[in-house]
Input
Amino acid sequence: MKTDDLIAALAADRMPAAAAFSRTLVGAITLAIVVAAVAFMSTLGPRADLAAAAVTPRFLFKVLVTLTVVAAALPLLWRLGRPDALVGNRWPLAVAPLLVGAGVLVELMLVPAAEWQRTAVGSNAVLCLTAIPLLAVVPLAVLLAALRRGATTRPSLAGAMAGLLASGIAAVFYAFHCFDDSPLFVVIWYSLGMGFVTLVAAVLGERLLRW
Output
C-alpha cells in the first residue's frame, strides 16, 4: 500500500471513532447533569428564599461564576479525550478566577472591613466543602468512564478537566441552595470544594485513562 493510501485509510478509520466518542461524551455530560440535578433535588433542594435571591446581584454573580467554570472545562475535556486533537487555548479557564477576583474587589469596597471575616466564613462553609464533592462523585465517574472510551494522550490533564467539569456542575446546583452569596465566600469555599475534586480526578485520570 502506498503512503498516501495508508494515510487516507487511517483518516477514514478515525472519523467514525471520533464521531462515536463525541456521541459518548455528549451522553455522559447529559447524564452527569441529570444525576447531579436528581441528587441535588433529593437531598439539598433550592433555598427557601430563591425567588427573592434570584434577582440580587450577588446571587446572580455566584451562579455566573460557576457556569463559567462549566463553560471553560467542557470544550477542553472534549478535545482532551481524542488523541488527534490539540488542547488549544486554555485562557477560558482564567475567566472564572478573573470574574470572582473582580467580585471580591468590589465586595471589599462595599462591605466594611469589620464584616469581611464574617462574610467570608458565612454560615455554610462545612456544607459547601462536603456538598460540592459529594454532588460531583457520580458525574465524575460518568465522565471518566466516557473518557476511557476515547484515547487521551494526557490522562492526568483529561482527568483534571473531568473533575473540574463535574465539580462545576455540582457547584452550579449547590449555588441554588447556598445562602452565602458573597464573592468572599465563593472564592474560598467553592474554590476549595472544586479544587479538591479536580485534584482527585487528576490522580484518577493518570491511573484510569493511561493507555
User: Anything to note?
Assistant: The two ends are 28 Å apart (CA to CA).
